[in-house]
Design brief:
Number of domains: 1
Number of helices: 7
Largest sheet: none
Radius of gyration: 18 Å
């Protein structure tokens, strides 16, 4: 039996601190979304969401090295540990493509809303930019909250994991 570095209380405290970051990070997304530069919003969103997801992963000890240490403590392979504990975050590839695929999976990158947002941005510049910025902010907060919830749940699963004898 090993002592986990993150207690339930510490995990939940970290979650609260990271929630406060979400709104600050979403402002970057909103500014890029409001800018009348084609493609800037997607580039900024992908980079910001990826960097924040990687930061969350490290804060909760869900990076590969930490998971490998947990697996070693439980005398199992990394893949077995991930499967037995049921770690959802390990199924996400932490790359630009992986983040885009994850966002598609949770239903954020709807082509219709993207098209509408961009049509408005370029046909009604001022109003469209405000709408695009607001949509970008909303999408970023939704995505980051979703990613954070997944990471918190995985950290709690590791914290609560007891191998069957």
């Amino acid at each position: 039996m090993s002592l986990n570095v993150l207690s339930r209380e510490l995990i939940l405290t970290k979650k609260d601190v990271l929630i406060s970051r979400i709104y600050k990070v979403a402002v970057l997304s909103a500014l890029a979304g409001a800018a009348p530069v084609p493609g800037l919003d997607i580039a900024v969103d992908t980079l910001v969401l990826l960097e924040e997801a990687i930061f969350y992963r490290s804060q909760f000890g869900l990076d590969e090295d930490s998971l490998r240490n947990h697996a070693k403590l439980h005398r199992m392979s990394l893949d077995d540990f991930i499967e037995r504990v049921g770690l959802e975050s390990s199924m996400v590839e932490f790359s630009k493509t992986g983040i885009i695929m994850y966002l598609s999976k949770i239903g954020v990158t709807s082509a219709a809303s993207y098209a509408t947002k961009n049509i408005l941005k370029y046909t009604l510049p001022v109003v469209g930019n405000i709408i695009s910025g607001t949509a970008a902010y909303t999408s970023a907060t939704y995505c980051l909250n979703s990613i954070l919830d997944m990471m918190v749940n995985d950290a709690l699963k590791i914290n609560d994991y007891r191998p069957k004898e």
